[in-house]
């Protein structure tokens, strides 16, 4: 009886080993297939501001590229008299997006901003793109905007005793923005 139990344990152990090997191969194949389908987040290295086909500057940071809908709450009473609140999309709103870079000797952004300051908003409205590049300077994403104009340009020069560079921050207000790549 004990000999039979030892033999059965051997077979069960061998069966468990076979099962583990099969599952290991299956899991490995699943993981490699999953890795092939995986889309890792893009790593932004540089951003370019392209205004009507001309790159007007390169930036190291970009913020608030997108849109949102206002949420409208609509109170509804059903046939049993129970009140519920439905949330429906309201007005579409485009974010003002911001680009940042080190201060350069190029004055194009200041000239563009000055048009708005001088009240020439209509001629300052431009269509353009924000282009994101990876470390090898290959384009990995692009957002196109329409009728954008510089609503804010801030330069933050830093004193010589700080070991940092001065930062220029540009905020663009537009009528739409859409990711196209």
How many separate domains?
Answer: 2
Largest sheet: 8 strands, antiparallel
Number of helices: 3
Order of helices and strands: HEEEEEEHHEEEE
Could you explain the architecture of this structure?
12% of the residues are buried. The protein is α+β, with helices and mostly antiparallel strands and 181 residues long. Strands 1, 2, 3, 6, 7, 8, 9 and 10 form an 8-stranded antiparallel sheet that branches. The chain has a two-stranded antiparallel ribbon with strand order 4-5. It has helices at residues 2-37, 108-117, 121-124; strands spanning 46-51, 54-59, 61-63, 67-77, 83-94, 97-102, 126-133, 139-156, 167-173, 176-179. The protein has 3 helices and 10 strands; from the N terminus they run αββββββααββββ. The chain has 2 domains: 1-38; 46-179, Hcp1-like (Pnp Oxidase, Chain A, Roll), CATH 2.30.110.20.
Summarize the structure in short.
With 181 residues, this protein is of the alpha+beta class.
